[in-house]
Each structure stands twice: as structure tokens, then as C-alpha cells.
DNA sequence: ACTTACGTTTACGTTAACGTCAGTTTTATG
DNA sequence: CATAAAACTGACGTTAACGTAAACGTAAGT
């Protein structure tokens, strides 16, 4: 008598609107990503509801993260492929690894650029603030408090 | 007799296609940004050629940089406004400064997120590489060289 | 002055990434 | 079992961000 396997993966699953709510998007968007071939949730019958598992969720998260950094869905397709390859299939392995490394280097460049932008913004805010501080004598008490509050925040931001 | 002012700013100027070439975009795109109100190059007559100066160039650079990080032109509009305000106009100053600070904090969040992604990618590449190394006995000399080359690169990427 | 390359405006075309119905079918619940 | 809530499948609509073509003016070299 085959007992029901107690070792069944408890792997949680999600409905389409659960994921949509969690990530602040619409079900339509999720279906669209499937149209593009980026997701392939299970179904009991070909017409029944989509069942998303952790893996699907992770992929969706990746997609949305990529979008926040300005990647188009087409570009994200390439990145997603990285997570699909079976490394025992020793054929395109080299290309895959190279692509992965290049991708990491791209990320490094983005980080550097962001740090430059950060410095610029900070510089801008500082000079802005200096002008404010120079003319604060004529200002109200309230205004002077605002200014010194901003000074504290900006100084703190300048430390990291 | 007014002499021609020898102190004229040598400020370099650019044509539309000079900028387009430099940044790898089309003149059409640059005109479009002007349509959106993000650029306002000088002209000798209202119908003659556009003359871009350093300031215009800087703004364009900012726009393109923003786009690379996933901002829409609409969002970039807000950021560009930051660079326009006259800080002697002590009215919306507080809002401006607050917006600037918030923007820096957003950048910090993006940097953090990128660092997380970087770690993930690196982790992925490492485990990928380990599988390769595990089965390298049966591989050709050439293949083994590839693998150890990748190992060096990935180890180096893991240090920073 | 002539040509040639570049610039300008106007206006319509295009593509990605969904939004928005409408009509139908599943799934959950009293 | 009924019925309401949620999902499904087309299919067409929309918006941002340009592309592209036509028709014309202008600046620069020969």
C-alpha cells in the first residue's frame, strides 16, 4: 500500500493575483511575461488556473528588479537564460560563464556610476545649502531650524 | 569706439549631430527632449540651427544617464528641475532640498540592491564553475584552461 | 555660384509593455 | 447546489519614446 508521501515538498504556491499584489503589478503584466516566454507556471489542465511556485516567483522578482534598472524585457530574456542552463550539458558552458562574468562587470560599472551621481548630487545639495545658510539671518526661526536640520542630514549622507 | 570684447567666453558649442554622435543617439531624440522641455538651445534666428553649449550638454548627459537607470523622461523632468532653481528665491527651497535628499537616499537604495544582485550572480557563477571543475577530468586540455581562467576571474571579482 | 552635406519642420509610423474591456469558465464558500 | 469571486481567453486600445519620410532652408568647401 503506497502511503501518501509525507516527504512531499511543502513548496508553497501562489495564484496570479497573490503575486500581483505582492509585487504591486497587475495579473495582466504577469500573463504578459508568460507570453514573452519568461514564466511557465504549472496547470492541472491546459485551461485551468496558473499555479506559480517559488521558482516562478524568483524569476518574476528578477524581471521586476531588472526593469527597475532600465533593462528591457528583451534584454532580461538573455539574463534569465543564465538561470536555465543545465551545467552538465557541457556545450555552451563557456559562453554562459563568459556572459555571466561580463554581466557582473556591467553591474560593477553601474555601481560606480551611481556612486559618481551620488557624489554630484551631494555636492549640489551642499552648495545649495551653503547659500541658504549664508542668508539665514533674515529668516524666521522655523526656517533656520529647517536649514540646520538639512545640514545634519546632508553631513550624515556625506560620511558613507 | 567699442572694441570687440576680448574677454568673450570661449565656451565651446556643439551642433546637434555632434552631440548625437558623442552620445550614440540620433538628432531626432535630442529634438524630442527639447519638445519635452528638457533642453532649450540657443538660436540666431528662430528658424536657424540649434547651438548647444556646455550646459545643454550636461543636461543631455544627465538625461541619458537617468535613462540607463530606468527613469522615464517624465521622472527625469523632476530631477532636472533641481538643477534649475534659483536658490535666492527663498520659497520652494525647503521642498527642493528635501527632494534632493530623498533622491540621494534612493540612489543609496539602488546601490545596495545592485550589490545584492552582484553577490547573487557571483554565487551563481561560483556554483556553476564548481560543477565544471568537478567534471573536468574527462575534458580536453583546452577546456581545462578555460575553466581555470574563469576561476581566476571569478575569484578576483569576489574580492572587491 | 554651385554643390553637397547638414539642419529644420511637419506629420505620420512603429514598437514595447502593458491597460481595458467582454464574454466565458473555474474555484471557493454559504 | 447555487452563487459569487476570481481566473481565463481573445482582441482591441493606449502611451512613451522615438523612427522615418518629405519638402525645404542653410553653411561650407571648391
Task: Summarize the topology.
Two copies of one chain form a homodimer.
Chain A: H1 16-23, H2 27-35, H3 54-68, H4 73-82, H5 93-134, H6 141-157
The structure holds a DNA duplex (30 and 30 nucleotides).
Question: Tags for this entry?
Answer:
DNA-binding; 160 residues; homodimer; elongated; mainly alpha
At a glance:
The structure is a homodimer of 160-residue chains. The first copy, chain A, has helices at residues 16-23, 27-35, 54-68, 73-82, 93-134, 141-157. By secondary structure, the first copy, chain A, is mainly α.
| Helix fraction of chain A by DSSP (H/I, runs of at least 4) | 55-70%
Radius of gyration of chain A from CA coordinates: 25 Å
Mean pLDDT across all amino acids of chain A: 88
List the quaternary state of the chains.
homodimer
Shape of chain A: elongated
Distance between the termini of chain A: 64 Å
Largest sheet of chain A: none
Task: Tell me what the structure shows.
- 2 copies of one chain form a homodimer.
- With 160 residues, chain A is mainly alpha-helical.
- Helix content of chain A is 63%, strand content 0%.
- Chain A is built from 6 helices and no strands.
- The first copy, chain A, has helices at 16-23, 27-35, 54-68, 73-82, 93-134, 141-157.
- In chain A, α5 packs antiparallel against α6 (141-157).
- At the A-B interface, α3, α5 and α6 of A face α3, α5 and α6 of B.
- The structure holds a DNA duplex (30 and 30 nucleotides).
Amino acid at each position: 500500500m503506497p502511503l501518501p508521501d509525507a516527504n512531499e515538498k511543502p513548496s508553497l504556491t501562489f495564484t496570479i493575483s497573490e503575486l500581483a499584489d505582492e509585487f504591486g503589478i497587475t495579473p495582466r503584466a504577469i500573463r504578459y511575461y508568460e507570453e514573452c516566454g519568461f514564466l511557465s507556471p504549472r496547470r492541472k489542465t491546459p485551461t485551468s488556473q496558473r499555479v506559480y511556485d517559488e521558482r516562478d516567483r524568483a524569476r518574476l522578482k528578477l524581471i521586476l528588479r531588472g526593469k527597475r534598472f532600465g533593462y528591457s524585457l528583451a534584454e532580461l530574456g538573455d539574463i534569465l537564460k543564465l538561470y536555465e542552463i543545465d551545467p552538465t550539458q557541457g556545450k555552451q558552458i563557456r559562453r554562459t560563464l563568459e556572459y555571466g562574468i561580463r554581466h557582473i562587470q556591467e553591474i560593477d560599472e553601474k555601481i560606480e556610476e551611481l556612486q559618481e551621481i551620488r557624489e554630484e548630487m551631494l555636492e549640489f545639495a551642499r552648495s545649495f545649502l551653503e547659500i541658504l545658510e549664508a542668508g539665514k539671518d533674515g529668516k524666521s526661526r522655523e526656517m533656520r531650524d529647517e536649514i540646520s536640520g538639512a545640514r545634519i542630514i546632508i553631513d550624515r549622507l556625506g560620511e558613507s
